[in-house]
Amino acid sequence: MRPAITLGLMSLLAVGVLSGAPFLGMYPIPMEAIFAPLEGNIEAEIFWNLRVPRVMAAFLAGAGLAISGMAFQALFRNPLATPFTLGVASGAALGAALYVRSGLSFALLSISGLSLSAFVGALGSILLVYGLTQIRQGFSVASMLLAGVAISFFFSSLILFIQYMSDFAQSFHILHWLMGNLGVTGMETVFEILPFVAGGALVILLLSQELNLLATGELLAVSRGLNLRRIRSLLFFVTSLTVGGIVATCGPIGFVGMMVPHICRLLVGADHRFLTPATLLFGGSFLTLCDTLARNLIAPAEIPVGVITALLGGPFFIWLLLRRASEKRLV
């Protein structure tokens, strides 16, 4: 199937998911209720203030995580790379854990202290990885990976220490945040995520040709006039900030950034001019469907959406490893 046709079908899927998901829940919402005045209308309140913002937040988060994973896979030329490879999620989690353990409660410009602390942690992780990379070998792929993995393990151990030193309520709060959660109320969360996803998506879309060159290898990319240092630095900061903004608001939602780019490559090919919009559309639809399943599977209780994506991602990861092993045997 031609990539353009596949993109059209993915667009229809995204429209269908965004239109249909708000109606799915423990309490069915009739169509006429959503056009009624909000005041005194419980069904309209649930639809517009709970379900619509949650669906929009899920779509934006899924799109941002998926496109960031795609960019990292091209940057590292590694199909197993994820948006969390460089320790951004661990930094955000450390910031969130410190906030919960401190017992503080504040907000700034309608943004919760938890989200702000998580974003500061993510930003600190980004700057730390960049600084360590510069010290080693001038922003090479290998030094980025080494620095990211080291920071991720160190921050994860600090999070475990903080949990151990916390009381039951604080420890449960930290654990719940680490599972990833899209339980939002109102449009504030959507407006918090939107600038990061829109900015990251725009830059990555504009760099589609450069991503194609990166995926072919460093020697060919340099021979075509690509400034590797500039492109790597730009992609590193843009994707890391995108992921940091999402994780700070929704918590770490794993495997979306690994699974979706692979599925889209099978559908539209490896050309990033088509792969990038396909990943955006399918990533948003995928996480929205996962979140819809998470809030309906054991209603009225909810499963953290990160648990659903992990349950899907584990088998997918094994399949990917087996597929790569069989390809190597054929070669």
From TrEMBL:
CDD domains cross-referenced by the UniProt entry: TM_ABC_iron-siderophores_like
One Pfam match: FecCD
Matches recorded under PANTHER family: ABC TRANSPORTER PERMEASE PROTEIN MJ0876-RELATED, FERRIC ENTEROBACTIN TRANSPORT SYSTEM PERMEASE PROTEIN
Superkingdom: Bacteria
Family classification: Belongs to the binding-protein-dependent transport system permease family. FecCD subfamily.
Bilayer topology: Multi-pass membrane protein
Record-level Gene Ontology MF annotations: transmembrane transporter activity
Location(s) in or outside the cell: Cell membrane
Stated name of the protein: Transport system permease protein
Transmembrane spans: 55-76, 83-100, 106-132, 144-166, 186-207, 234-260, 303-322
Key words of the record: Cell membrane, Membrane, Transmembrane, Transmembrane helix, Transport
GO cellular component, one term: plasma membrane
Listed GO biological process terms: siderophore-iron import into cell
